[in-house]
Design brief:
Elements: H1 2-6, E1 8-15, H2 21-31, H3 54-66, E2 69-74, E3 77-82, H4 92-97, E4 103-109, H5 116-126, E5 132-137, H6 146-157, E6 160-163, E7 165-168, E8 176-179, E9 184-187, E10 201-203, H7 208-214, H8 217-231, H9 237-241, E11 245-250, H10 259-269, E12 276-277, E13 282-283, E14 291-299, E15 308-316, E16 318-320, E17 323-327, E18 332-336, E19 340-341, E20 348-349, E21 352-354, E22 358-363, E23 372-374, E24 385-387, E25 391-397, H11 403-416, E26 419-424, E27 430-434, H12 438-451, E28 455-459, E29 464-469, H13 473-483, E30 487-490, E31 495-499, H14 502-511, E32 516-518, E33 520-522
Parallel strand pairs: 1-3, 1-4, 4-5, 5-11, 6-11
Antiparallel strand pairs: 2-3, 7-8, 8-9, 9-10, 12-13, 14-15, 14-23, 15-22, 16-21, 17-18, 17-23, 19-20, 24-33, 25-27, 25-28, 26-27, 26-30, 29-31, 29-32, 30-31
Helix pairs in contact: 11-12
Bound molecules: guanosine-5'-diphosphate (GDP).
């Protein structure tokens, strides 16, 4: 069993929208022989659409679920790629998915450099010091200077860069990459993006063949490399595994070039399923006994299956169809005969799965984000937090008599983890918080659909939320009386500070050094 688990490499892609995540995913599946020809995986955004168009949203989510978890064999390993919703469907789930992987691939649009969303996702990876592999994409376009790109990653993301491949030219002059560790040159040819290409490569930077093929660019490359190798970091596995250094690959996802080298490096270096901390002890992935935790709950994913699916990351042991597992929070044994996987565009029933794999459990409201399942042991995994919302709306009921139903709906939906509800102390208002804007539409629709509540959302001047922690009871009481105007309870009755502005938050933090303003909250 532990060998099965040792083969797993479970990761997700972090990137800013339009950097090329969908495109590179498609090439990875092509290389993993999951699809015959690239172009068959539908993109999640077939064009710009109004976020309030529910049908469109539903359709898109229907598509996106088939790619929620992708598994493919590669070089003797079994790769699990977890989708991180990125466009309109961006949400807290995107963040939490990163707590369920062992490594991440960072895709950067090389003409733009490090962008906002990447910075934020990288912060989330930092919570667990997740190892990061970097792919500098779109080399077939005019890009920023590669040395500057690496400097930017080092400075903005605070991680050392170790170039593994180095680009030869860019845009129309893009010729290929030099593989620093292999001392090989791989040549790029256009128009081959949809197939697995035959390798066109030569050995040795000093190979005269190189001068024949690319002329004066050959000497430029040698000169540049001397500079680069002198100034950059060498790849060190140890530092990579600690999340301190990232191996950097260059290429074009669209042209399916440079991706193979990246994937080879990735499966070679990325960690096998890691152990997990629980409240009792650290659980190793090679333990025989089954255990896992829930990191995402998705509802209405596919109009044909109107149920909710709870996504579980298996931490140890093996899932077998029909097995019994303990739902620790409820202290109840459940029998699971129909866990699902999402392969090949359809939900398929699953016979077995191992540590590192993701399985889907049918959920009729009893499973929550952060729940632990075991073979019987009473332990609870940690490290599956809520993240502070970044967008806020005031919820206004159309029918004031439905207030109770509204609150119940909002709290139940917040247990699924994509949105959060706050009840300010100083008013009867309800505030909805989310990380992605589409979630407001999802909530409005589901409140109507599942709770028969009609509501609208209004803008509200809240900049961010922070969960309040303080060991000193007296201090906390003082704080509560002073900060009353901006305090609220979240769906789980946790004390939360809703800061009207960033400046206000900073001031409060300065004024109350013994109060913790937490950006994440553990379940
Ligand atoms: P996502 O939003 O990160 O999933 O990005 P997509 O994969 O949808 O790519 C966004 C756009 O960039 C699409 O029009 C892609 O065709 C294009 N794109 C992706 N990779 C490349 C590349 O290597 N070169 C060029 N020129 N365009 C690319």
């Amino acid at each position: 069993m532990s060998t099965e688990s040792n083969l797993r490499r479970t990761f997700a892609i972090i990137s800013h929208p339009d950097a090329g995540k969908t495109t590179i995913t498609e090439k990875l599946l092509l290389l993993g022989q999951k699809i015959q020809e690239a172009g068959t995986v539908k993109g999640k955004k077939s064009g710009k659409h109004a976020t309030s168009d529910w049908m469109e949203m539903e359709k898109q989510r229907g598509i996106s679920v088939t790619t929620s978890v992708m598994q493919f064999p590669y070089n003797g390993r079994i790769v699990n790629l977890l989708d991180t919703p990125g466009h309109e469907d961006f949400s807290e789930d995107t963040y939490r998915t990163l707590t369920a992987v062992d490594s991440a691939l960072m895709v950067i649009d090389s003409s733009k450099g490090v962008e906002d969303r990447t910075i934020k996702l990288m912060e989330v990876c930092r919570l667990r010091d997740t190892p990061i592999v970097t792919f500098m994409n779109k080399l077939d376009r005019d890009i920023k200077d590669p040395i500057e790109l690496m400097d930017e990653v080092e400075e903005v993301l605070n991680i050392q860069c170790a170039p593994i491949t180095w680009p030869i030219g860019m845009g129309k002059q893009f010729k290929g990459v030099y593989h620093i560790l292999e001392d090989k040159i791989y040549f790029y040819s256009t128009g081959q993006g949809h197939i697995i290409q035959k390798e066109d490569c030569i050995e040795g930077l000093d190979n005269p063949e190189l001068d024949k093929r690319i002329g004066a660019m050959a000497q430029d490359l040698r000169d540049e490399l001397e500079l680069v190798l002198g100034a950059s970091h060498e790849f060190e596995l140890e530092a990579f595994l600690k999340g301190q250094l990232t191996p950097v690959f260059f290429g074009t996802a669209l042209g399916n070039f440079g991706v193979t080298q990246m994937l080879n490096g990735f499966v070679n270096w990325a960690p096998a399923p890691l152990s997990r901390q629980s409240n009792e002890r650290e659980v190793e992935s090679n333990e025989d006994q089954f255990s896992g935790f829930i990191f995402k709950i998705q509802a209405n994913m596919d109009p044909a299956h109107r149920d909710r699916i709870a996504f579980m990351r298996i931490v140890s042991g093996k899932y077998e169809k029909g097995m019994k597992m303990k739902h620790v929070r409820l202290n109840r044994d459940i029998q699971v005969s129909n866990a699902v996987t999402f392969l090949a565009g359809d939900r398929a029933n699953l016979e077995t799965a191992y540590a590192g794999d993701i399985i889907g459990l049918h959920n009729h409201g009893t499973i929550q984000i952060g729940d632990t399942f075991t073979a019987g042991e009473m332990l609870k995994f940690s490290g599956i937090p809520n993240f502070a919302p970044e967008l806020f709306r005031r919820v206004r009921l159309k029918d004031p008599l439905k207030n109770k139903a509204l609150l119940k709906g909002l709290i139940q939906l917040s247990e699924e983890g994509a949105t959060q509800v706050f009840r300010p102390f100083h008013s009867n208002e309800l505030i909805l918080g989310a990380v992605g804007v589409l979630q407001f539409d999802v909530v409005a629709h589901r409140l109507q659909d599942e709770y028969k509540v009609n509501c609208i959302f209004e803008p509200v001047s809240i900049h961010t939320a922070r969960w309040i922690m303080c060991d000193d009871e007296k201090m906390l009481e003082q704080f509560k009386s002073k900060a009353d105007d901006n305090l609220s309870l979240d769906g789980g009755d946790n004390l939360t500070y809703l800061a009207p502005t960033r400046v206000n938050l900073n001031l409060m933090q300065e004024r109350w050094p013994d109060i913790q303003f937490c950006e994440t909250r553990e379940h």
